[in-house]
Amino acid sequence: MLKPRRPEFRISVEDESNLLYSYKKGPQRAKINLVRLTRQTIEVLTRWFADGSIRQRDEVKLIGSYLYRVLFGDKIQEEFLESLKTDGDPANPLRVVLSFENKARELATWPWEYLYLPDDLNRGTAGTFLASDTKLTLSRNVPKMAEDKASSDDEELRILVVISEPDNANAVD
User: Fold this and answer.
1) How far are the Cα atoms of 17, 34, 84, 93 from residue 4, in angstroms, in the given order?
2) DSSP 2-56
3) Would you give the DSSP letter of residue 102?
4) What is the pTM of this model?
5) Side-chain half-sphere exposure of 132, counting CA atoms within 13 A
């Protein structure tokens, strides 16, 4: 028996000002909310994050909230929240695909896996990290950088595969 097709919310960042998103309708254009102060704040927080200076949950929520606000302006946020409400199901999670075009290379380096849907007192909802929400799966596609060297036939291909199959999965300590 075939599984039902997973609902999908796609966001394609074209450059530092524009994105395309699609859910059930065709692709729609939206503007990225990236003012200078927001960019500077994200860049500083990203550096601190990379240095290991950010360790507290509220600090990670802060950078995730900034990242969320960059992508999810009014129009796209309404459709995204509606998609979560109608298609967010732990049994068949909403697939959120975030991709970056070459013109958005710098934005692609930011830690999008920490996207945080902030608390909303008007809706009465608690915030959540999108990557850990059981009603959705988040994936990020990053463009291949033009300056990446082409692989040669001499190079060794390395693959890491991790499979979890604990013997005592039902054991209780």
Assistant:
1) 35, 37, 17, 11
2) PPPPPPEEEEEE-SSSEEEEESSSS-EEEE----HHHHHHHHHHHHHHHHT---S
3) G
4) 0.77
5) 8
H/E element holding 116?
Answer: strand 116-117
At 158 the three-state DSSP class reads coil
User: Which helix (H) or strand (E) is 80 found in, with range?
Assistant: helix 74-87
Q: Residues of 105-140 as b/e, b for ≥16 C-beta within 10 angstroms?
A: bebbebbbebbbbbeeeeeeeeebbbbebebbebeb
Q: Which of 57-61, 121-125, 157-161 has the lowest mean pLDDT?
A: 121-125
Cβ–Cβ under 8 Å, residues 116 and 68: yes
Q: For residue 83, what are the CA distances in angstroms to 20, 67, 143?
A: 16, 19, 26
12 Cβ contact partners less than 8 Å away, ≥ 6 residues apart: 19, 20, 21, 27, 99, 100, 101
